[in-house]
Amino acid sequence: MKLESKHYKIIGSAVAIVMLLLGMLLSEMNIIGKDGIDVVVEVHSRFELTLKPDMTVKSSILYNEEGGMVTKKLNLSSREMKEAVGILANIMIENNMIQENNKTIMVSVISHEKEIDSQDVSSEVVDTLKEVFEHSFSTGKLDYEVSIFSTTADDTDKRLKQISKEYKVSLPKAKLMQRYHRALGSHTMGQLAKMPIEQMYLDLTKNEVDIK
Questions:
Q1: Residue 129 lies in a domain
Q2: Rounded to an integer, what distance in angstroms lies between the CA atom of residue 14 and that of residue 23?
Q3: Which of 24, 44, 103, 212 lies in disulfide reach of 144, CB 3.0 to 4.6 Å?
């Protein structure tokens, strides 16, 4: 009986280990463990918001100009998405993040909620940013008119994740780098990682490369 009990304990432990490893693998592959809505707003620095299904902020982070290091965790928890995005726009204005050669903003949304469409959220983010920037420009608070474009990125794409990790860039910028490199081939991936969003956007649209 003792031997049989010991045998079952060994089997139980083995099963537990296999289930743990399987869970880690599936999570790494983004098959399970993802929920909420991820929002990226990027000029040269970038903001990342994670939203709950009720469209309030779960977490918010500001990354530095190179994008690879966390500069500041923003205290936006539980705020409505529109309010939080308006705050991000004002942070950009007040900290002179909008410059002559950095006045094009990229927005990307990935929804892990079946009932929430990424494009709908993206449109609302873009509209909110436009409202703040247009008002600030008309009142003289902002010196430049701001251009905003939206794109998407597949967070299950292993190559994009590899580029993002290697060059310390956001997933949507990794996609732009990949498209740029394939279509134009005039820069290395390392050079593209340092290229401003605005320059990438202008070059890609000039050459009619799809950035959606």
A1: yes
A2: 14
A3: 103
Q: Compute how many other C-beta atoms are within 10 angstroms of the C-beta atom of residue 56.
A: 15
Copy the structure tokens of residue 112: 């892990």
Q: CA quadruple 69, 77, 156, 153: dihedral positive or negative? A: negative
User: Distances from the Cα of 211 to the Cαs of 23, 74, 144, 147, in angstroms?
Assistant: 34, 29, 24, 15
118-173 pLDDT tens trace: 999 999 999 999 999 999 999 999 999 999 999 988 888 999 999 999 999 999 99
Q: Are residues 17 and 43 in the same domain?
A: no
Same domain, residue pair 25 and 63: no
What is the number of alpha carbons within 13 Å of residue 191 lying toward its C-beta? 8
Long-range contact pairs involving 133-142 (C-beta distance under 8 Å, separation at least 24)? 133/89, 133/93, 133/98, 136/89, 136/93, 141/93, 142/93, 142/98
8 occurs within a structural domain: yes
In the block, which residue shows the tokens 């982070």?
Answer: 61
| Residues 211 and 201 sit within 8 Å (Cβ to Cβ) | yes
